[in-house]
Design goal:
Length: about 160
């Protein structure tokens, strides 16, 4: 199974880039993981919030193929415990899902087309996090899920 993590916006904080690189390298032991980032051009970044959301969503949607299973990370999505996340991941491995795509929006979120395209909406917490931090936290949770599936001593319950 291939996993693609699509995100909008640059990671401009060095400790977040380092953490993302760490978990990206750890994940490569379990699956083919591709991190793809889309960025607005400067003129678009000065537009209204609705225009920014629409343009970021459009850029993200261009990276999604028709057969992909799309999981949108959104504050109002379903919250899973780590064991449930591992079960979800394992289910897709058993089903032989070709590509599992997780989508992280920019600071303003998504426009309507992404809500229609998503097969599932997940939330990391009922609290709101900066989109840059979400990428790091999600990668750690994805790594944790794989260690649970493989019964490795990382997760403590």
């Amino acid at each position: 199974m291939k996993i693609r993590i699509l995100s909008a916006g640059k990671i401009d904080v060095s400790y977040l880039r380092e953490g993302i690189a760490l978990y990206d390298s750890r994940l490569k032991h379990y699956a083919t993981v591709e991190l793809t980032q889309v960025n607005l051009n400067r003129s678009d970044s000065r537009a209204s919030v609705e225009v920014i959301k629409a343009k970021e969503t459009e850029l993200l949607m261009k990276k999604i193929n028709p057969g992909d299973f799309v999981v949108m990370l959104h504050e109002h999505g379903k919250q899973l415990r780590s064991l449930e996340m591992a079960a979800l991941l394992n289910e897709h491995m058993v089903r032989r899902t070709k590509k599992l795509v997780f989508v992280i929006g920019g600071p303003h979120g998504f426009s309507e087309p992404m809500f229609r395209r998503a097969d599932l909406q997940l939330s990391l917490s009922s609290m709101t996090f900066p989109h840059q931090l979400v990428k790091l936290v999600f990668l750690e949770q994805l790594y944790r899920a794989f260690t649970i599936i493989k019964n490795e001593p990382y997760h403590n319950e």
